[in-house]
Specification:
The structure holds two protein chains of two kinds.
Chain A: E1 2-11, E2 14-24, E3 29-34, H1 40-47, E4 55-60, E5 63-64, H2 72-76, E6 79-82, H3 94-104, H4 110-123, H5 139-151, E7 157-161, H6 169-184, E8 188-192, H7 196-202, E9 205-210, E10 213-218, H8 220-225, H9 230-239
Parallel strand pairs in A: 3-8, 3-9, 6-7, 7-8
Antiparallel strand pairs in A: 1-2, 1-4, 4-5, 9-10
Chain B: H1 8-48, H2 51-66, H3 69-82, H4 89-115, H5 118-126, H6 131-146, H7 148-161, H8 173-184, H9 187-216
The chains are: A alpha/beta, B mainly alpha.
The complex binds adenosine-5'-triphosphate and magnesium ion (MG).
Chain lengths: 240, 219
């Protein structure tokens, strides 16, 4: 379970997150929607401590992410992350991209890491691209590579930061399909997304972030069918 | 002009000259390897270090790039000698060249580091890598490719700079040549042959650098 309470985050004078409270239970798929600049990416980065926080607490399975004594590198193994820019490592083949952290972070043998990598690449439909370099892969393939790379750490949670918004429209589908597959397999996911169709069909809960707080959170039927807040209604009218 | 060329003494000493060429190559390669390691550390210190570390890095880089290489060599020879620390001629040249290489390479590396998107580091850290692992496995390999040509140039420069060694009594290629030339007074002949040996060494470095790049950079 991921628990965020009274989270505040500032960049210098810019108060980005103003008291976020959020609970994500095991097995839940949560979509986070909201206007550009409302702080959605920042919230994800705070959860795996790629950004420091100003106040509040974030716990993952009861462990305080931002506490002094926390071994953040160990904790991050539980939190797979996929970025908007897919960030493949260009100097490594697809297989090496995925096998690297199992070997040097989880300290598995070279052979074990390669087996895991091959299995995960197969899982996301890249079984025939093991020895390709990222430069030879399309954006959609690179994004699926990034998903396989995160999965190879066997995380308990997956964080997606607009995984499809840098892709050409015709490549969005294959990545959304992969995410849908993960959701069906029971992965706990937090997905920042502009894909309202995905948010409605795949997620168990949808949160609308407005001006640094969670304005409204609920099942997709409620958020899309019967939003309680005027701000939510106005946002959804705009993105449709 | 009534100078008569006499090449026989040079050819007699050629094996010794070639051997000295290997000494030159050896000190240049060593100063390059250590210089690369120092250069990477200096670049990181300059970009991310605390104020005192940054000051050390900037001073090193400024001195290495803006003073004559000969003075840098003299510092490790006569400079340290004045404080009672006497290095062997080999060490004087090695330290001088390394100091110079590191200063130039640090600026190349800094440019390289800045050209790698910040998101590469984030991605690596999100996978649970430590900062050191991310640098060693993800960032530095990409930087080395970006600065590969400037590095090759610096390597050539190190070979040529090592000829200053003859001024601190190091018997590398130039020192050895000077020694033989002054013994036989065939100064032109000796230095002409030595120039050819330098040329061969530099061509060898450029050739192997190209081969190595071909092996290393498949992407
Ligand atoms: N490293 C940073 N330094 C300063 N300001 C930042 C930094 N990162 C983000 N911001 C600012 O914080 C605010 C929230 O940014 P964030 O990226 O979290 O928004 P977002 O909701 O993800 O937007 P988008 O939908 O465009 O991705 C923005 O105003 C942004 O300019
Ligand atoms: Mg964002």
């Amino acid at each position: 379970m991921i628990e965020v309470s009274e989270l505040h985050k500032r960049f210098k004078d810019l108060h980005v997150l103003k008291g976020i409270n959020l609970v994500v239970e095991k097995g839940v798929v949560l979509s986070i929607v909201g206007a550009s600049g409302s702080g959605k990416s920042t919230l994800l980065y705070c959860i795996n401590a790629l950004e420091a926080i100003d106040s509040g607490t974030i716990t993952v399975d009861g462990e305080d992410v931002h506490a002094k004594g926390t071994d953040i590198n160990r904790l991050r193994r539980k939190l797979g992350m996929v970025f908007q820019q897919w960030n493949s490592f260009p100097h490594l083949t697809a297989l090496e991209n995925v096998a690297l952290s199992p070997r040097i972070v989880r300290k598995l043998s070279r052979a074990e890491s390669r087996d895991i990598a091959a299995k995960q690449l197969e899982h996301v439909g890249l079984g025939d691209k093991l020895n390709s370099y990222p430069s030879a892969l399309s954006g959609g393939q690179q994004q699926r590579l990034a998903i396989a790379r995160a999965l190879a750490m066997e995380p308990s949670y997956m964080l997606f930061d607009e995984a499809t918004s840098a892709l050409d429209p015709e490549l969005v589908g294959e990545v959304l399909d992969t995410m849908r597959l993960l959701a069906e397999e029971g992965m706990t996911m937090i997905c920042v997304t502009h894909e309202m169709g995905f948010a409605r069909d795949v997620s168990d809960r949808v949160a609308y972030v407005h001006d640094g707080t969670i304005e409204e959170i609920g099942p997709p039927e409620q958020i899309f069918g019967d939003p309680q807040s005027d701000n939510t209604r106005r946002f959804l009218a705009k993105v449709r | 002009m009534d100078y008569n060329f006499h090449w026989r003494p040079v050819f007699r000493d050629l094996p010794d000259l070639v051997e000295a060429g290997f000494v030159t190559l050896q000190v240049a390669v060593l100063s390059m390897l250590i210089g690369m390691a120092c250069g990477i550390v200096l670049a990181i210190m300059r970009m991310h270090g605390s104020a005192p570390l940054r000051w050390v890095a900037v001073s090193w880089i400024e001195l290495a790039r803006n003073t004559p290489a000969l003075f840098q060599l003299f510092f490790f020879g006569f400079g340290l000698g004045a404080f009672g620390l006497h290095l062997s001629p080999f060490l004087i040249v090695l330290c001088g060249l390394t100091f110079n290489n590191a200063g130039y390479l640090a600026e190349n590396f800094r440019g390289g580091f800045q050209a790698i998107p910040e998101t590469q580091m984030r991605a690596a850290r999100s996978l649970g890598m430590t900062a050191a692992q991310a640098y060693i496995r993800i960032i530095i390999p990409q930087v080395l490719r970006l600065v590969y040509h400037p590095m090759t140039n610096q390597m050539v420069w190190a070979v040529l700079m090592s000829s200053l060694g003859m001024l601190v009594g190091f018997r590398e290629l130039s020192g050895e040549t000077q020694f033989f030339a002054s013994r036989t007074f065939r100064i032109f002949e000796y230095f002409a042959v030595t120039a050819v040996i330098y040329y061969v060494i530099v061509k060898f470095i450029l050739g192997s650098s190209r081969l190595l790049a071909f092996r290393l950079f498949r992407y």
